[in-house]
Amino acid sequence: MEAIEVLQHVAQETAACTKCALHHSRKKAVPGAGPADAQIMFIGEGPGFHENEQGLPFVGAAGKFLDELLAGIGLRREQVYITNVVKCRPPGNRDPQTEELTACDPYLERQIQAINPKVIVTLGRFSMAKFLPHAKISAAHGRPVNVKGRLVVPFFHPAAALHQPSLRPAVEADFAKLPDLIRQAADAPEVPPAALSPEDNEEPKQLSLF
């Protein structure tokens, strides 16, 4: 099945999903958006109010800030794939719960395998925990980790910088590293689409790039 077909199937399935309690308050599922052949994939935490209304990821204040950050390094939203670890809005924008993350993870895995991005940027601690379950984002942010031939880079969530302006310089500095990471990843060997698995127990390797 072609990548675009997989993404369409995920979108259809999440729109009708009842695997966890989040569907009770869902207006629109937010499966993700972007090209099926994107080299870089951003994974956030969960949809907010505006995302729930529109069915698109990162369309509120954090999304506008993300657009600014991308523009600052010469990228447009249309060039990257953006999704979240949960596809429906947690009530009141609370943190995703374990059962919700578990229910949505197969959708995310299918997206990763279909797109097969060279670089995955996790936005926030819940998406970081999918790949680095024991890391602290205050220490791990901006530091690329090699996970089976693919670069995974934890970033603070853009919303964190909006709520805590003191984090903004760190967020901007992390984004400034992305062009070099993308160039490095483009020269890396091709990664098999199914290479990234949540059950894989191989220890990720920290890269000393910065």
Structural domains: how many: 1
Structural class, by secondary structure, is alpha/beta
Order of helices and strands: HEHHEHEHHEEHHHE
| Major sheet summary line | 6 strands, mixed
What fraction strand? 5-15%
The appropriate CATH architecture is 3-Layer(aba) Sandwich
DSSP helix count? 9
- Which value, in Å, is the CA radius of gyration? 16 Å
Distance between the termini: 38 Å
Please give the share of residues in helix. 40-55%
The average pLDDT is 89
Number of strands: 6
List descriptors:
6 strands; alpha/beta; Uracil-DNA Glycosylase, subunit E; 210 residues
Topology:
Blueprint: H1 3-15, E1 40-44, H2 49-54, H3 61-72, E2 81-84, H4 98-115, E3 119-123, H5 125-131, H6 137-140, E4 145-147, E5 150-155, H7 158-163, H8 168-176, H9 178-186, E6 205-206
Parallel strand pairs: 1-2, 1-3, 3-5
Antiparallel strand pairs: 4-5, 4-6
Helix pairs in contact: 1-4
Polypeptide structure, described:
The chain is of the alpha/beta class. A hairpin with a 2-residue loop joins strand 4 (145-147) and strand 5 (150-155). A 6-stranded mixed sheet has the order 2-1-3-5-4-6, sandwiched between helices. The protein has a single domain, classed as Uracil-DNA Glycosylase, subunit E (3-Layer(aba) Sandwich). Helix 1 runs antiparallel to helix 4 (98-115). The radius of gyration is 16 Å and the shape is globular. The chain is 40% helix and 12% strand. It is built from 9 helices and 6 strands.
